[in-house]
Specification:
The chain is α+β, with helices and mostly antiparallel strands. It has one domain (43-168): 3-Layer(aba) Sandwich (Heme iron utilization protein-like fold), CATH 3.40.1570.10. The protein is 30% helix and 34% strand. It has helices at residues 5-18, 24-31, 35-41, 55-62, 155-168, and strands at 47-51, 67-74, 77-84, 88-91, 94-97, 105-107, 112-122, 125-134, 139-144. The strands form 2 sheets. The protein has a 6-stranded antiparallel beta sheet, sandwiched between helices. Strand 7 (112-122) and strand 8 (125-134) form a beta hairpin.
């Protein structure tokens, strides 16, 4: 039995309504779709996409946020790293991240199709992240607004997240 995308999206929305704070990758896996489709099924305003061409501008803003949580989530595991977003430059086909941070490496920024500003509950608490989506609809990596010791979101980072989303949210 082949499922059409329309019916898959309806089922995804039903799953999200039943468990609005669950793991989005699990929903994508359960329906055999890229994570971008699940992001697009979130309630209005919960996942605001902007063009991937804003990669460098958004990255530059993120370098001023202070300590964040950087996550790469694949079917095989979840890699989490806390640190400052270091500056980066383009060279030799990659966006090269360099600086005094545990976050470093070389990104294929040319494969970034969209950047989503995601604001949704996660296990009962508000969670805000900037998610970089590749041309296949998969999430390359996520940068989460940091948390205080009491698990509340860092106010300064939340304000920067909201300002960046408002600045670019009308473009897609």
């Amino acid at each position: 039995m082949t499922m059409t995308v329309g019916s898959a999206e309806d089922l995804i929305r039903q799953d999200l309504a039943a468990k609005p704070d669950g793991v989005l990758e699990s929903v994508a896996d359960a329906h055999g779709v890229p994570l971008q489709i699940v992001l697009d099924c979130l309630p209005e305003g919960a996942a605001v996409p902007v063009p991937g061409t804003l990669f460098e501008e958004i990255w530059r803003d993120l370098t001023g946020w202070g300590e964040i949580t950087f996550i790469v989530h694949t079917r095989d595991g979840v890699f989490e790293c806390k640190g400052r977003v270091p500056p980066g430059t383009f060279g030799r086909g990659s966006f090269n991240i360099h600086g005094d941070s545990p976050i470093g490496g070389h990104l294929r920024a040319d494969r970034c199709r969209f950047i989503y500003f995601v604001d949704r509950p996660f296990f009962g608490k508000r969670s805000c992240s900037v998610q970089f989506v590749n041309e296949d609809g998969g999430v390359m990596f996520k940068i989460f607004v940091g948390r205080n010791e009491d698990r509340s979101l860092k106010t300064d980072q939340l304000e920067r997240f909201e300002a960046l989303r408002a600045k670019h949210g009308g473009r897609s």
